[in-house]
Write a structure and sequence with these properties.
alpha+beta, Beta-Lactamase, five-stranded antiparallel β-sheet
């Protein structure tokens, strides 16, 4: 056998060896892929893989049960096909962070998904990085579990713990949380905060003459009116039976506050008509203006103290109205 024939034979053997190795590796990968698909499709949770652009390269068949889509509807589509705007925005931001820092900040998170019929559900997602043989990040693995019932129950309990059961306004707990936040923002930006304390005049007569159920109806009407009289960034809370308190942020001038007080007073004075009666009420309003700048070198009074000061001013206003002959 000539030298060239030997070389050619060795080349064929080497080529055959490479092909066999590649074929065995392909078979192994196909077996692993088949096993992965079988495992994913038998899972109750939704399993997905996305690439670094946020497009799905794999979704398990449970996507149809959970969201109403077939896998082929989702594969190749961006993640905002099934994620709400807020959840999709947060997800894209995290993808960009991972590609820059090579680290995953949130291996477990909660996202809002949108079903095919437009309804929503909350899921808990466990996420891991997908890498190639060289260690480069090529995408993300995710396992999404339906926690919609638990999520809504948790938020309902939180809402009940921080809102008045009758009027659905913030209660004392949430009010003080918001007041502390408002004071913190005021210190940062240097603006004033106004605290109002409101007490309905002669409301007890409605309860005594018409019963507490009728009084509750009147309180619900007034609570809605007070909330509608304020800006979105302001807060009105029910502090007691017929007592409300208001936080007014980034106050510019005293005249601005006078305008707010007058608007609140008019919302109370407007006649209230129910199926059982016709009522005309009035209100006594105390105020406490908080300027954060003079507090730079001294401790800011506690929120409870500030509310008590507004309450004291309210009783002074009520007493002054009585001395002037008004019914208060």
């Amino acid at each position: 056998m000539s030298y060239s024939s030997v070389v050619f034979t060795l080349f064929l053997l080497a080529l055959a060896t490479v092909l066999i190795v590649l074929w065995l590796r392909y078979r192994s990968q196909q077996t692993e892929l088949h096993q992965f698909r079988h495992l994913a499709d038998s899972a109750h949770d939704l399993i997905w893989i996305i690439d670094t652009s946020g497009r799905f390269v794999f979704v398990s068949s449970s996507v149809e049960r959970m969201l109403g889509y077939r896998p082929e509807d989702v594969i190749g589509q961006p993640l905002d096909m099934i994620a709400s705007h807020g959840s999709a925005t947060a997800s894209y931001h995290e993808i960009r962070h991972v590609l820059v820092t090579r680290t995953l900040r949130f291996p477990r998170t909660e996202l809002k998904y949108i079903r095919r019929d437009g309804t929503s559900l909350w899921v808990e997602v466990m996420i891991n990085l997908r890498r190639d043989a060289s260690g480069q990040i090529t995408g993300f693995y995710g396992i999404a579990r339906d926690i919609d019932e638990q999520y809504r129950l948790r938020h309902e309990m939180h809402h009940l713990a921080h809102h008045d059961n009758l009027t659905n306004l913030p209660n004392r707990t949430l009010f003080f949380d918001r007041l502390e936040s408002a004071l913190s923002r005021a210190r940062r930006h240097g603006w004033q905060v106004a605290l109002l304390y409101m007490d309905l005049d002669h409301f007890k007569q409605i309860n005594d003459q018409h019963g507490h159920q009728e009084g509750d109806r009147v309180l619900k009407v007034l609570a809605r009116r007070l909330a509608e009289s304020l800006r979105e960034e302001d807060t009105v809370a029910r502090i007691g039976g017929d007592e409300f308190s208001v936080i007014i942020e980034h106050l510019q001038t005293p005249s601005d506050l006078n305008g707010v007080i007058e608007k609140l007073r008019q919302s109370v004075q407007k006649p209230i008509v129910t199926d059982h009666g016709h009522y005309k009420l009035d209100v006594s309003i105390g105020k406490r203006i908080i300027d954060p700048e003079p507090q730079t070198h001294t401790q800011m009074p506690a929120p409870e103290t500030l509310l008590a000061e507004a309450d004291h001013d309210m009783y002074q206003q009520k007493a002054a109205r009585r001395r002037s002959g008004e019914q208060a």
